[in-house]
Amino acid sequence: MSDDPTRQEGTQGGHDGPANGYRRNDADRKGSVTSDQTNEFKEDPWTEGPEVPPGKGAKQSPGAPGDDAETLRERQRLAQLEMMDHWIGGVLTEQRRTRRWKLFFRLMFLAVVLAALSAALYSLFWDSPSVATPTQRHLGIVKVDGVIASDSPANAERIIQGLNRAWDAESAAAVVLHINSPGGSPVQSQRIYAEIMRLREQGDKPIIAVIEDVGASGAYYIAAAADEIVASPVSLVGSIGVIYAGFGFEEAIERIGVERRVLTAGENKAFLDPFQPLDNEAEAFWQGVLSQTHRQFIDDVRAGRGERLSDSSDIFSGLIWSGEQSIELGLVDQLGSLEQLSRDQVGNIDWVDYTPSLDPFERFTRRFTEVTAEVLGIRASNTPLSF
Fold this sequence. Notes:
Blueprint: H1 5-12, H2 18-43, H3 69-125, E1 138-145, H4 156-168, E2 172-181, H5 186-202, E3 207-216, H6 218-223, E4 228-231, E5 236-238, H7 250-255, H8 280-305, E6 320-322, H9 323-329, E7 334-335, H10 338-346, E8 351-353, H11 360-376
Parallel strand pairs: 1-2, 1-8, 2-3, 3-4, 3-5, 4-7
Antiparallel strand pairs: 5-6
Helix pairs in contact: 4-5
């Protein structure tokens, strides 16, 4: 042991000995590194929020026991760069996903455009009832299906075109109007009626109307021009009349405090305005229009049916009858079906549809519009009158 008490105290546990001093310097150095590292976390511009303790958040590279403050800062910068690399990678991945969705929707839009173009080309170049007209005897069918209107499949132009196709087909034993319609536009019905009467006067082949579920109003107007009318016993036939329907909202608009402003050139231009009362004079005038149209309807039915009609005054009252009742009134010639008619005319069930086909895109849009109108309770028509 040393004889120096001072050195002995320092060695054994004094506060002024060299060994203790070395320990203090080493601890001070570690404390300095820890302080620098802490300041680095707090001053780091890439971090937001409170300090992240070691072992949490981004993965930290542990320093070697002998690393100085500069080495630790370099390791921290490398860790931050690694974190940025992961963040940028995530952003690029999200951008790639966004581009994929954009490409998908663009391809879908292109597919819709191509489908519409294909449908248009189909209607222009391949719109024919059949590839070739059959040579064996058959019935030439022309369909009158649905509401008769200029913007519906049962329009005058389409039906007249089908009538002439069937009429010109040499192997067609008869032209058959296959009717399933509640009626519709007076103008469209009159056009079809006139064309049937023109063909009927030529007398080359019979024109027969076959009524399915319903052949009423404007549909019966068309059927009356045929040489013969066939219906099922439970078909609905007749409804020879004219109708106009509207609403009056003059009191409702006053209750909610809305002022109606209408400017016209002509004192009667707005006489059917639903927000104004319908006076007696305007009502009488409009009733005259309906009556005159009804008279035209009656005259054409009489011209088509002739003496086959009974003398009952109820025929032209707007009532509708079953097929069996219509036989007694002279509205129908015989009860039967399309199959039975085909056997009678050509000996077997054989017919060809000469109605011009609608392109697929038009069929889809029409069906979508019809379903939407039915759901909303909307009935669209180009004319206020209907048969």
